[in-house]
Write a structure and sequence with these properties.
CATH class: Alpha Beta
Radius of gyration: 19 Å
CATH superfamily: SGNH hydrolase
Oligomer: single chain
CATH topology: Rossmann fold
Structural class: alpha/beta
Number of domains: 1
CATH architecture: 3-Layer(aba) Sandwich
Strand content: 15-25%
Helix content: 25-40%
Length: about 280
C-alpha cells in the first residue's frame, strides 16, 4: 500500500513497469512524494525516475516514502548501500523538506512526523504555525509531544543545519564506497531564506557556554554541498515553468518530464552516462 496519509486506497503496481527492479537496480532513487510520483496517473511509468532510466536503457528502483524526511533518506540510503550485494551504478537523491522528522514507535515501525500545515516568518525565521498529522497508532502523549516539539523546539536554522549535515554524511559515505551520485532539492522554500544564518557563530553549552574551535560557515557548507544554491524541483516546475500541479501540490506528468530532462542533462554534463556503457 502507499505510504501516503492522503491516498490510502492507492495500490502500487511495480510489475507494470518493465524497468523497475526492487533489488540490484542500475539507478537507485530516494526521496519523498516527488520521487514516489504522487498524483500521477501511473506512478511508475510516468515518474521522472522511470523516464531517466528509460532514456539510458537502465533498470531503477526507489526507496522513497511520501512525507519522508532527510533523516530517513540518510538512514535508508546508507543501510541499502551497506546491505546491497551489488551496488547501483548511480544514486540519485532528492532531499526533502528540512522540517520533516521520523521516529521509531513501540511497534518498531518508522513513522514520519508529517505536517498538515506549516508556516514560518522568512525574515525572522520563526515558526508561526505547525500542525502535524496524527497517525492511528500514535498515542495522545506522542501527538502532543511531537506537536509542541516541532513548533517550539525545532527551528528553521536548526532544520537547515541538520539537513546539510545529513547530506554531507551521505556524500562522504557514497564517495568512500566509490558510488557516483547526484543530489537535488525537492523544494528550497525552507532553505534559501536561511542560508545567511549559516554564517552565525554557533556555540556549545553545558554548565558553561563556549565557542568551538571549528565552526562551519556558508562557504564551508557550499564547498561540501555545492548544490546548496541549486534550484529546487518545486520552484523549477511550479514557479518558473508554471507546469500543472495536482490538488495535493505535486507535479503532474509535464513536471516529471521536465525534472527528468534536467537530470538527464546533468548526467551528460557530468559525463556520468559513461557508467551505463
Amino acid at each position: 500500500m502507499s505510504e501516503s496519509v492522503l491516498d490510502l486506497n492507492y495500490v502500487d503496481e511495480p510489475e507494470t513497469c518493465k524497468r523497475f527492479r526492487s533489488t540490484h537496480p542500475d539507478i537507485y532513487f530516494n526521496g519523498c512524494s516527488f520521487v514516489q510520483g504522487m498524483e500521477l496517473q501511473d506512478r511508475f511509468n510516468n515518474c521522472f525516475a522511470h523516464l531517466v532510466a528509460e532514456h539510458f536503457n537502465q533498470t531503477w528502483c526507489r526507496t522513497s516514502k511520501i512525507g519522508g524526511g532527510n533523516d530517513r533518506i540518510l538512514r535508508v540510503t546508507s543501510t541499502d548501500m551497506m546491505q546491497m550485494t551489488r551496488k547501483p551504478k548511480l544514486v540519485i537523491l532528492v532531499w526533502s523538506g528540512p522540517n520533516r522528522v521520523e521516529y521509531l514507535n513501540s511497534q518498531d515501525v518508522w513513522r514520519q512526523v508529517g505536517h498538515i500545515r506549516f508556516a514560518f516568518d522568512k525574515r525572522k525565521l520563526s515558526i508561526k504555525h505547525s500542525e502535524i498529522y496524527c497517525h492511528p497508532d500514535m498515542t495522545r502523549d506522542q501527538y502532543d509531544g511531537w506537536k509542541k516539539y516541532m513548533k517550539n523546539c525545532r527551528s528553521i536554522k536548526w532544520n537547515l543545519l541538520d539537513t546539510l549535515h545529513n547530506m554531507i554524511y551521505m556524500r562522504h559515505m557514497l564517495n568512500g564506497m566509490g558510488i557516483p551520485h547526484l543530489f537535488y532539492w525537492m523544494s528550497k522554500g525552507q532553505v534559501d531564506c536561511a542560508i545567511d544564518s549559516l554564517n552565525n557563530t554557533r556555540k556549545e553549552g553545558a554548565n558553561v557556554v563556549w565557542e568551538m574551535q571549528y565552526n562551519m560557515k556558508e562557504k564551508d557548507f557550499a564547498r561540501e554541498i555545492p548544490e546548496l544554491y541549486d534550484e529546487g524541483f518545486y520552484e523549477m516546475t511550479k514557479a518558473r515553468l508554471k507546469l500543472p500541479y495536482g490538488p495535493l501540490d505535486h507535479p503532474l506528468e509535464e513536471g516529471h518530464q521536465a525534472i527528468a530532462e534536467r537530470i538527464i542533462k546533468d548526467i551528460y554534463d557530468k559525463k556520468l552516462d559513461k557508467l551505463f556503457n
